[in-house]
Amino acid sequence: MNDKKSAMRSHRVVWHPCTQMKHHEEFPPVLITRGEGVWLYDADGQRYLDTISSWWVNLFGHCNPRINAAIIDQLGRLEHTMLAGLTHEPVVELSERLSTITPGSLSHCFYASDGASANEIALKMSFHYWQQSGFPEKTQFINLQNGYHGETLGALSVTDVPIFRQVYAPLLRPAHPVLTPDWRFAEAGETPEAHALKAAAALESYLTQHHASTAALILEPLVQGAAGMGMYHPVYLQKAREICDTYRIHLITDEIAVGFGRTGTLFACEQAAITPDIMCLAKGLSGGYLPLSVVLTNDTIYRAFYSDQTSQAFLHSHSHSGNALACRAALATLDIIEQDNVIETNRHKTKFLNQCLQSVRTHPNVRHFRNCGMIWAFEVDNPRPDFTNRFAQMGLERQLLIRPMGNSVYIMPPYIINEEEMEFMAQAILNILNEI
Ligand SMILES: *Cc1c(COP(=O)(O)O)cnc(C)c1O
């Protein structure tokens, strides 16, 4: 199939996500026919290094032989069954393993398909817990400024990214965003840690007033992805945990983008040695292969729903909850993380890529260069109004799939990237910076 022709066909019938479709008149979508490792191949045989892990989901490359084999094996046994009244081996094993590897005692796993649905579940669960525990006035949620939790209406209510939120504001619940600990917003001379402590103080001052009406604080631990990979000091998480305990508020950590080793530890919460009351995982959970998300919670919350009354149960469902194929992909992903000692291996890769990016870091147009585990980001001083699209286009011309958010350029490659590919990626980014 001819590349241009099918791109036109796509334009006619596929309404692409997060896209002004008119832009595709000039730059049609790239028709990808095959993936292997960090590379995506188009119909003309051109290849592109997936520097952003296909929207942050891919961990071990495209068409990973081990994950492929697990899915194929599962396909011959059971593709899917509903999870009410029935259960299956992959979902049981995955739940056991997730409760073992996550911090603290998050021992109950509730499944959905997408990240946004996981956050919807977390919010409903927190609210419902308080309803059934003698605190019916706890109906509000707090979030961080610039936080992102997905785009369904409940998740969007706790999302603070104007471009996604503004139009829909009349449909959303009242928002209570508190100061972000993102160190890009620190004052001159203020360290990231001092800024994080200031943000924690702002959280506490909000809660001294509003704790009685607040059910939960939801946040992205360590890295605020959609804010342009804003990063913050882990002391904020420690303080937030203490403050939530003091004021009897649930702490919901949305590790949808940062879970499974992205920030350098298996889960971002580990860097602050805290356990949330509710934790949401998706994206890398299935190695990025299939839509799968999970909400983990502790026994205290679980017990509040456990009774003889059906009406006290958590009556929430999605058709594909705990899909067997997706669970097998997740189990294969966990196997790779363990067998290949991924956290340790990634530490060396992080060091190597930081060396490769030295000239990017010190580039005269680059500000706020930052790195956390396998995520890198920086702001580019460039007045072009079309900077974002232009940078992405120049990336494609240099074999990179890269999509800045505004003037924030970030890279978040699959963990299987090798040294040669890291050198190639860093050099291509430097060339774009010099030419744009
Ligand atoms: C991507 C993302 C979501 C939404 O997940 P979807 O699967 O796209 O619905 C929620 N929270 C965070 C932090 C994310 O990065």
From TrEMBL:
It comes from the Bacteria. Substrate binds at residues 55, 148, 283, 317, 403. Its EC number is 2.6.1.62. The keyword Cell division does not apply. GO terms for molecular function: adenosylmethionine-8-amino-7-oxononanoate transaminase activity; pyridoxal phosphate binding. PROSITE patterns: AA_TRANSFER_CLASS_3. GO terms for biological process: biotin biosynthetic process. It is an enzyme of class 2 (transferase). Its cofactor is pyridoxal 5'-phosphate. Keywords: Aminotransferase, Biotin biosynthesis, Cytoplasm, Pyridoxal phosphate, S-adenosyl-L-methionine, Transferase. GO terms for cellular component: cytoplasm. It catalyses: (8S)-8-amino-7-oxononanoate + S-adenosyl-L-methionine = S-adenosyl-4-methylsulfanyl-2-oxobutanoate + (7R,8S)-7,8-diammoniononanoate. Its main location: cytoplasm. The modification N6-(pyridoxal phosphate)lysine is found at residue 283. The keyword Cytoplasm applies. Pfam families: Aminotran_3 (PF00202). Homodimer. Belongs to the class-III pyridoxal-phosphate-dependent aminotransferase family. BioA subfamily. Catalyzes the transfer of the alpha-amino group from S-adenosyl-L-methionine (SAM) to 7-keto-8-aminopelargonic acid (KAPA) to form 7,8-diaminopelargonic acid (DAPA). It is the only aminotransferase known to utilize SAM as an amino donor. This is Adenosylmethionine-8-amino-7-oxononanoate aminotransferase. It comes from Nitrosomonas europaea (strain ATCC 19718 / CIP 103999 / KCTC 2705 / NBRC 14298).
